[in-house]
Hints:
Layout: E1 8-13, H1 19-30, E2 34-36, H2 44-49, E3 56-60, H3 63-73, E4 81-83, E5 87-90, E6 96-97, H4 98-113
Parallel strand pairs: 2-5
Antiparallel strand pairs: 1-3, 2-4, 5-6
Helix pairs in contact: 1-4
Amino acid sequence: MLIRDGLATAVHDISDGGILVALAEMTMASRIGAVLESPAAIAAHAFWFGEDQARFVVTAKNAEAILDRAGTAGVAVARLGATGGSVLAIAGERPLVVSDLLARFEAWLPAYMAGAD
């Protein structure tokens, strides 16, 4: 529904690391930051890192259309925040600069293979 109608700009499953890992990978791939809202009803570590094969992160230019369609279809959906800027930020936590995150992500394997500490 979302892809066919062109509503989603990116979709990522959370089965390998949870919501925060999926969002980090999405910010690195797009080089676009995100400001995220912390969950109120669930422990933060369970919310951000809980893995589930049936949940996805979706970014879209028209989030309201996705929220409306999901609600009409009876699909549970929640807004996590907004994209934009150069950092990945969660309220109350130190923001991560996307370019720094990407540099560390891409550099660790070559450094490891070279025997760097």
